[in-house]
Amino acid sequence: MIRRTMIELAASVVVIMAAPGCKKSGDGAASENKAVSAETGKAGSGDTAKAGSGSDMAKAGSGGAGGETAKPAGVSLEVTHWWTSGGESAAVKELAKAFDATGNKWVDGAIPGSGDQARPIMVARITGGDPMGATQFNHGRQAEDLVKAGVMRDLTDLATKEHWKELIRPSSLLDSCTVDGKIYCAPVNIHSQQWLWISNKAFTDAKVAIPTNWDEFVKAAPALEKAGKIPLAQGRQSWQETLTFQVLLVALAGPEAYLKVYKDKDKAFAAGPEITKVFNAADQARKLSAKSTVQDWNQATAMVIKGDAGGQIMGDWAQGEFQVAGQKAGTDYTCLPGLGVHEVMQTAGDAFYFPKLKDEAKSRAQETLASVMLSKETQVAFNLKKGSVPVRGDVDVNTANDCMKKGLAILAKGPGAIIQATDQLMTPDSATQVNDLFAEFFAKPEMTVKAAQKRFADLIAAAK
Ligand code: GAL
User: Fold this and answer.
1) 204 CA distance to ligand 1 centroid (A)?
2) What is the whole-number distance in angstroms between the Cα of residue 349 and the centre of ligand 1?
């Protein structure tokens, strides 16, 4: 397996910069990072921006994690992310609103096409000397190379002053932000991928009982098809097809099996009978979703919302779509954590990183933004719309819907019911290679379970 860093990956996609949604930051940061070359990602002589001094933060302002934030003169800060679906847009507006309330200005840098499209663009801008003020990455190792290239802000002082270590749980979230003992990001939510979302309408139309687990779901498929439904809605982007496989693995083989594969990178186990069962279930999933031709995950969720499809395996960001459609958990749709088999929560989700900027006022505003993102108010307002769980355990989420409450209850069970995300367990490059395999598996019915599992075991053995 050829090892490519995120920076090298980005260099090969600079062309995409022309894509709609990418705008020149114009925040005067370009000059600072000119020293950082897209190829090597190595920092040159460019001096780094000095962060706002801690004491400013402590003095005045509204609700940061530590309760106080400085209110510098209004500064515009461009924030890039890949939140473009209805639910995602509603949620990100809560972050923008909270930041604007500090007297600064959130300049939205939404990049369409999901994380796999957006991340190379973000990396290319940062390494190409055109950094934004803040940018989304998933919990894990996606920004590792940028941090090691010295182009990202160290937030340790702010994190210490605002007690992030005490506030944020589970601690693996902040661990994912930490490189060589320093903290480089603000985690904003916990998203679990371990869910099956079911259309109550589709099952009622097909006159079959709403399933309580994967087996019952598969058994109901012929009746759904007879009623003109697509049993399983599946978006045709490789990360979504990998997600379907990975959720089936945790649900059917168990969390220990998942860790043997993704954490221990155990080739023999990945090639073994336990995982063959999972590939057989993935084979069922590709048959049940054969008529699902949409690309984006939220288009697949829309099929469930409309009752055209029986269900979708997707992360709990899908909840944002049900909310925007005005649908009620338990009434219009049903959610099965762990496909109703192994109920675990996964610590996937999002964190914001802050490229180094020379502009003092913007650097202070970066701290204000990080602080506001972790304030109690923002955590509740954002996560309730996003369908994710707050990273703070001391916030009141009693207005959460039934599915979020199920997630919170599983999280409250502690370490035995929580698994790390694949992005926390392998490099982006290894994840991309696994995605390529599942894109092929779902696109080619002639690809046998045996052939796919062999390649999978090889990839896992070589994964970093
Ligand atoms: C994930 C992200 C989520 C969600 C999803 C679909 O990577 O963590 O917040 O929005 O992508 O876009």
Assistant:
1) 30
2) 7
